[in-house]
Amino acid sequence: MVLLFGPSHGLPPFWPRTDLTMTNNLGGPVLTVHCKSKDNDLGVHMVAAKTDYHFSFQPNIWKTTLFFCSFQWNNQVKRFDIFDAPRDQDDGYKFNWTIKPDGPCKLGKKVKCFPWK
């Protein structure tokens, strides 16, 4: 017997889509965001103060999905792994981040802030 799973067969996939939102909380300047994975380049996005940039993706079954981003404002360029499956995958499928000058913070039951890379 062969079992087929996926959207074309009316059954949910093993790994639901993950939604990720980043809010520009730099205190004024426009934030330029450029996120990529090994297989996907999401392009460059300009995010005004107090607004969001959002994307969705399907994590792989090996729990190795990684999205890394560069963040630019004023004369600064910072980098951060905005989704790292070993770190994030067990936290659900909706991620909200606030981007601040001293680093990104993952919002949820507990706020967890990280240093820039």
TrEMBL record:
A biological process from GO: rejection of self pollen
Signal peptide: none
InterPro entries named in the record: Self-incomp_S1 (IPR010264)
Top-level taxon: Eukaryota
GO CC annotations, alphabetized: extracellular region
Subcellular location as annotated: Secreted
Keywords from the UniProt entry: Secreted, Self-incompatibility, Signal
Main localization (coarse): secreted
Pfam families with a match to the protein in the record: Self-incomp_S1
Keyword Signal (UniProt): yes
Family in the record: Belongs to the plant self-incompatibility (S1) protein family.
This protein's name: S-protein homolog
